[in-house]
Amino acid sequence: DAGITQSPRHKVTETGTPVTLRCHQTENHRYMYWYRQDPGHGLRLIHYSYGVKDTDKGEVSDGYSVSRSKTEDFLLTLESATSSQTSVYFCAISEHGTERGVSYGYTFGSGTRLTVV
Amino acid sequence: GQNIDQPTEMTATEGAIVQINCTYQTSGFNGLFWYQQHAGEAPTFLSYNVLDGLEEKGRFSSFLSRSKGYSYLLLKELQMKDSASYLCALLSNDYKLSFGAGTTVTVRA
User: Fold this and answer.
1) What is the chain B residue with the closest CA to A43?
2) Taking CB atoms and an 8 Å cutoff, what residues of chain A touch B44?
3) Fewest CB atoms within 10 A around its CB: which of A111, B92, B101, B105?
4) Contact (CB<8Å) A45/B50
5) Which of A31, A41, A101 sits opposite B101 (nearest CB)?
């Protein structure tokens, strides 16, 4: 299995506090992604990275920021947590080839369950 | 953006076949993925279609028709462990994966 770990696995925090979630990979994959998963919405992309210091917004990026200072680490920060950010957060890694548009797929971390009270 | 639609729930009997449809609206994409997700766990890769046609992997097959904006996942010889959510996802040309809301399949004895 691809080496991807998320920390923490569970977190409860108070409204207004900053929170940072960490994603760590040992596969040297170029692409890293942060998703949130909520009932009825499926997985929605928050931010993604296509290289060290190269990041871009996804469809639900408001209230979130990211950083990638090393290939292996991708951090997601909630600057001031709100109850609407209670969710399960998944990190994913991927590598994409150029032959016939081949993609080697996404591998997901085990998720972080965040509760904002 | 990409509008990806799939049924919310399906129920089938152990040993039967179930087909999960996925329709989408997008101007262009790299390929289409299917993922399986058991409750409380991470999604895991099932199949990937780049070209039109059928891709077969054991008991699971996936079909894509780009002209019709349509894909399906076929699960054969259903087992109890196949009870899970199945996620249809489109890979954009800039390598972002967008998901449908998922189809929860319940397998009954």
Assistant:
1) B99
2) 108
3) B92
4) no
5) A41
* C-alpha A70 chain-centroid distance: 15
Say if residue A2's pLDDT is above 60. no
- Whose structure tokens read 């990026």? A61
User: What's the distance, CA A38 to chain centroid?
Assistant: 14
- CB–CB contact B97 A92 (8 Å): yes
C-alpha to C-alpha distance for A71 and A74, rounded to whole angstroms: 8
Q: DSSP assignment, residue B43?
A: -
Q: Give the model's confidence band at B30: pLDDT under 50 very low, under 70 low, under 90 confident, else very high.
A: confident
- Cα–Cα distance, A65 to A46 (Å, whole number): 9
Q: Which residues of B touch A (CB under 8 A)?
A: 1, 30-31, 33, 41-45, 48, 50-51, 87, 89, 91, 95-102
Beta bridge partners of B23: B5, B70
Answer yes or no: do B95 and A31 touch at CB < 8 A. Answer: yes
Residue A61 DSSP class: -
Alpha carbon of B38: minimum distance to chain A alpha carbons (Å):
12
Q: What one-letter code names the amino acid at B46?
A: L
pLDDT at A100: 46
**Contact between A50 and A66 (Cβ < 8 Å):** no
pLDDT digits (tens, 9 = 90+) for A54-94: 999 999 999 999 999 999 999 999 999 999 999 999 999 98
Residue A14 burial (C-beta neighbours within 10 Å; 0-12, 13-18, 19+): exposed
